[in-house]
Amino acid sequence: MPELRITLDYTSGVTQRTGIGRYIRQLIPALAALHTPHQYTLFTSVRPPADHRLPPASAFRRRVLPLGERIFKLGWQYARLPLPADLLTGRADLWHGLNGTLPPLLHGRAIVTVHDLAFLAQPDAVNPSAAAYLNRAVPRAVRRADAVIALSEHTRRNLIERLHIPAERVQIAYPGISPAFQRITDEMLLAATRYKFELQQPFILTVGTLEARKNLVRLVQAFDKIRRERGGPKMLAIVGPDGWGYEKVYETVNQLGLKKEVRFLNYVSDLDLILLYSMADVVALPSLYEDFGLPVLEAMACGAPVICSNTGGLPEAAGNAALLVKPTDTDTLAATLLRLLRNPRLRALLSKKGQAQAAKFTWEACAQTHLKVYEEVGKAEEQQ
């Protein structure tokens, strides 16, 4: 395969600490590790912080245009300014939009990664301004793209059915799990983490941005239903930053008098997250809508028993290694949490099955899928 010049929109890798940003930051080193002849340009519309390092590979260069992400969004997606991105970043054979959108391009072919279609499937659970932007930008991008990458079969089907994208243009690239996510059993480290975050066991852990679609209000209500039951949880720990609709979560905690029992931990380091997964009695991820759900696999890799929604792409991540619940049924969620907390044999079984399930997903495999898409699209360009 001849050398390809590939430009990737890396902006979300700089601006988003969780979710898509985390995905992008783990994908790029995996691409670098493949040691292909291709040359990559990472384009970002904001200046990365001083401690943000690119993979140590000669194939990667950085192109920073620190005008601000909002300026590019307004110019390219709203005003439709005919300013081709490759005039700013240099000519490329392929442009890859890693966050669901594409700019105008003068040369080359385009690939776009779609992380989810929540703005179509669950519009009430998405920030209205974000939904308005995505309703403009994503359909336009997937129609323009020569290939579309989805993170799950669920999203692939939605792209085909809702946006009428030909099936042959959509490829699944499941995310991977960093090898750092392994169960930690060192009692001193676990005790120090419990002390640091003021946790008491048994506790339920959930991970993700505090936004409406994460369904945290129902999780808090389910926790309240069972916390006084025999074998019930003493605490609920929530890891993640405030997002759209977060106020309702805090309001519910206050209304139920749970300020001491519900711990809002905000961002935590990867090491702290691994320790929290390792010591959690149950990890609960009852999202109303999720494309795939990396926290499901991260928790499983650390040996945590998992309860998650039976909707969206979460069942693909969970396989047969989690208990699945209808996210809108608070009573069933509460009963399932209590059942798992009371049953150490079931927790041990899910822990073992979860570690085996998580091991199926690697960033190397994800990067190999990307490389295959790049070379197939690049070959088609060459033949024209």
Task: Estimate the helix proportion, in percent.
Answer: 40-55%
Order of helices and strands: EHHEEHHEEHHEHEHEHEHEHEHEHEHHH
Give the termini separation.
16 Å
Mean pLDDT over the residues = 91
Cα radius of gyration in angstroms: 21 Å
How many individual helices? 16
Tally of domains: 2
CATH classification, class level of the largest domain: Alpha Beta
Fraction of residues in β-strands:
15-25%
Strand segment count:
13
Oligomer: single chain
- Low-confidence parts: none
Q: Could you give a short account of the major beta sheet?
A: 7 strands, parallel
Shape: globular
In CATH, what is the homologous superfamily of the largest domain? Glycogen Phosphorylase B
Structural class: alpha/beta
Strand order of the largest sheet: 3-2-1-4-5-6-7
CATH architecture of the largest domain: 3-Layer(aba) Sandwich
Q: Which fold name corresponds to the CATH topology of the largest domain?
A: Rossmann fold
Can you put this structure into words, describing what you see?
This protein has 384 residues and is α/β, with parallel strands linked by helices. It folds into two domains: 5-176 and 362-383, Rossmann fold (3-Layer(aba) Sandwich); 187-358, 3-Layer(aba) Sandwich (Rossmann fold). Helices cover 43% and strands 15% of the residues. The chain contains 16 helices and 13 strands. It has helices at 11-15, 20-32, 69-78, 85-89, 118-121, 128-144, 153-162, 187-196, 216-226, 247-255, 270-279, 294-301, 314-318, 330-342, 344-358, 363-383, and strands spanning 5-9, 39-44, 60-64, 94-97, 109-114, 147-150, 170-172, 203-207, 235-239, 262-266, 282-285, 306-309, 323-325. The strands form two sheets. The chain has a seven-stranded parallel sheet with strand order 3-2-1-4-5-6-7, sandwiched between helices. Helix 7 (153-162) links the parallel strand 6 (147-150) and strand 7. The two termini are 16 Å apart.
